[in-house]
Amino acid sequence: MTPAQYNLLYAIYAWTNAVVVILAGFLIDKLGNRFGVFVFSLMTVLGSSVFALGSHFKGSPYLLPMMLTGRLLFGSGNGSLTIVQNRITAFWFRGKELALAFGLTLSFSRLGSVLNFFFTQQFEAKFGMQWTLWGGTLLCVLGFVSALTVSVLDKVGMKQLGLDGVIQQESKKVRIQDIQRLPLRYWLLVLTIMFFYNGVFPFVADASKFIQDKYSGYSQQAAAYIAGAVYDSSLVLSAAAGILIDYVGLRGVFAVGCAALTLPVFALLAFTFVPPLVSTIWLGITYSFAAASMWPSIPLVVPQATLGTAMGLATSVQMVGVGLSNLVVGHVLGTKSSELKIPLWRWQQMMIFMLANTVACIVASVSLNIVDKKQGATLNGTRKGAALERGDGSPAEAAPLLRGETGNGGS
Ligand SMILES: C[C@H](NC(=O)[C@@H](N)CCCCN)C(=O)O
User: Which domain of life, per UniProt (predicted)?
Assistant: First the structure.
């Protein structure tokens, strides 16, 4: 397989994901969590099976089409599964430990990446590529079984609360035009998320090469470990960040703070020779707090009935932003061969582009705070403060469970 074909396998995952998540979010709102959990986890199993099967056609013209089809199915299923996962989490943890629940999901997803990083290569060396790919399929089957278990728990819980019928009634009313009714705070959150991730994901993708090109004395493996520190920190910190944010609230303030504290990361990388591990750990910290404050804010400003659509749209905008950012970075770095050393001035331009995205993130998140303040400070309310005000100790987030329940949040 040529490098272009190999990269195409990644590109098809990212771009189908960006398109499919909008439709998937809408379908989940319309047809329910159980439909989404079943269909999308089944798609990941099918996708990974087709991909693994494709590897048996090495040297034949079927190899690439089969692998691309596998990635397409897997990408569509996996991205959509994240939406239904967020929707279920938001339903069960709204007004409680929402940020902790999101943080834990993020930690587990990072644990998957870290385990993959440490073990897949060794597994492949011992058992060969085909068994490794079928091993991946087996993991997707385990995911499918877990998804079915969640589905059953969700159904039982809904029945116990007597909400099953109500939610189904609300789902029937969901229309694609509801996108127009998503509030300004939602769109500002989407921009905040997009600009933040425009800096993080493309940087991590290229960080290992950057470290080898700019700093002396780093082997390929050492550079990869240092780049991986961004995700390692998030594996360790995401749950703690969630607990803190659940306790103090101030999600909008955290969003601005994380963006502002990310500026020195890219500045250090662009203009100094401070060891890169300082920057990658630092970025890991701001990234963990940003993810634990930004994503769980979405369920607080949109009704549960349209949450799937809202999450799908946010993910799609994020993926398109990151995809474009990758293209700009590729253009700025300007080389097709991973062997050649890229001149430092090009890396500096890339970091300046990351800085520009971070500044845009600060502008979007400051605007978010201004609008949130005018609309009742749902995002910045502190849990303790709100409980004291009501004198009942009940959850702070007056979140709209169903459409039209609150004036500001739902419209
Ligand atoms: C929580 C957040 N999730 C995402 O950004 C997803 N839309 C895409 C994840 C792709 C990971 N390679 C995150 O991971 O920070």
Answer: Eukaryota
Task: List pLDDT tens digits, range 181-205.
Answer: 899 999 999 999 999 999 999 899 8
Helix (H) or strand (E) holding 411: none
Instruction: Name the token pair of 374.
Output: 């005018």
Tallying the residues shown for the chain, one arrives at 411
Q: How far is the CA of 183 from the centre of ligand 1 (A)?
A: 23
Atom from ligand 1 closest to the CA of residue 110: 14
Give me the domains of the chain, ranges plus CATH numbers: 3-392 (1.20.1250.20)
Question: Which ligand 1 atom is at minimum distance from the Cα of 105?
Answer: 1
Question: Is residue 313 within 6 Å of ligand 1 at its C-beta?
Answer: no
CA end-to-end distance (rounded Å), the chain: 50
Residue 128 DSSP class: -
Question: How far is 100 from 93, CA to CA, in rounded Å?
Answer: 9
| Global ipTM | 0.94
Q: Dihedral of CA 247/108/17/85: which sign?
A: negative
CA-CA distance, 322 to 262, in Å (whole number)? Answer: 17
Question: Residue 54 has what pLDDT?
Answer: 92
pLDDT digits (tens, 9 = 90+) for 325-378: 888 888 888 866 666 788 899 999 999 999 999 999 999 999 999 999 998 888
Sign of the torsion angle spanned by Cα atoms 84, 85, 91, 94: negative
pTM comes to: 0.86
Evaluate whether 234 touches 107 at the Cβ level (below 8 Å): yes
Cα(343) to centroid(ligand 1), Å: 30
The half-sphere exposure of 294 on its side-chain side, counting CA atoms within 13 A, is: 32
Which residue, chain included where needed, has tokens 């749902």? 378
Ligand 1 site, residue 106, Cβ cutoff 6 A: yes
Give the type of residue at 257.
G
Q: List Cβ neighbours of 401 (8 Å cut-off, separation of 6 or more).
A: 94, 303, 304
State the distance from the centre of ligand 1 to the C-alpha of 201, rounded, in angstroms.
9
Contacts of 292 (CB under 8 A, 6+ apart): 99, 102, 103, 106, 238, 241, 242, 245
Residue in 80, 388, 111 with CA at minimum distance from that of residue 249: 388
**Residue range 161-176: mean pLDDT, rounded:** 74
